[in-house]
Amino acid sequence: MIQFPLEAGEALDMDAIWIISICAICLGGLFGLYVYAWSIPTLQWFAPAILRGPADRNRIALTFDDGPCPGNSEQILDILRQYDVKATFFVCGQNVERSPEILRRIQAEGHTIGNHSYSHPFPYFRSRSFFAREVDLTQEVIEKVTGKRPKFFRPPFGARWLGLQPVLSARRLSLVNWSDTGYDWKLDTEGIVRETLKTLGPGSIILLHDGRNTYPPQRVDRSPTVTALPAILEGAVKAGLTFVSLDELLS
Ligand SMILES: [Zn+2]
Asked: How far is the CA of 55 from the centre of ligand 1 (A)?
């Protein structure tokens, strides 16, 4: 008899604890989904991203991220020259400072240059002024070497966050992600060729890499990408597709 009110109180407390726990788990789950959604390169919920060009002509664009990177970038440039293909290079400001001569070669050989941030950071929980600094520093570094400011921006990892889009809009930069990739950060040569050609079609924008984040060149080996490139170029041409720069594809 003496214990009854205490037991009732305990039961009420347990109910409250259960409800609070379930609410916390649901809110945590929703927040996790929200953060995950920003990391999806193809998602258009929060901000626009260009994923492909018009499909009315058989044109496609080849893009390389994370350069310039001595050795890897030059081997890729040699192959592109051999096949007379124009590509687009999304470069990081830090890498350009390290290898300005490669950026000059990219420009001299008629390829398009895009901004891929200064230090290749993860975007989550960053401020608008952080994004502005990353974008502006890279625009300045590229302009210093080439005399031109890029029109295209690709976020590191294709991931975005609040505050990035207003920074890009104010600078009239278009955010370009991709429709096709060879997953060259994890596959071997054969896998890169297979995955790249699997869904290729008119308007495709292909993602490959000539560097790795802002790692020093001695820590970067893009030889699987380099050896896959001729088969990708030949496979696309065999499918009746023509490589053009992003500029041309999206104009
Ligand atoms: Zn990147």
From this structure: 26
Domain identity same for 111 and 211: yes
Whether 157 and 209 share a structural domain = yes
Reference 88, options 76, 71, 75; nearest CA is 76
Q: Would you please indicate which residues are annotated as catalytic (active-site) residues?
A: 65, 209
Q: How far is the CA of 5 from the centre of ligand 1 (A)?
A: 63
Q: What are phi and psi of 6, to 5 degrees?
A: -65, -40
Q: How far apart are CA 158 and CA 209, in angstroms?
A: 13
The parent domain of residue 69 ranges over 59-250
Question: How many A from CA of 3 to the centre of ligand 1?
Answer: 65
Say how far apart CA 95 and CA 18 lie, in whole Å.
52
Residues with CB under 5 A from ligand 1 (ion): 65-66, 156
Instruction: Note the pLDDT tens digit of each residue in 180-200.
Output: 999 999 999 999 999 999 999
Decide if 79 is inside a domain. Answer: yes
- Total domains, the chain: 2
Residues in Cβ contact with 228 at an 8 Å cutoff, skipping those fewer than 6 apart: 182, 184, 189, 190, 192, 193, 196, 208
Instruction: Give the model's confidence band at 14: pLDDT under 50 very low, under 70 low, under 90 confident, else very high.
Output: confident
Residue 164 CA to ligand 1 centre (angstroms)? 16
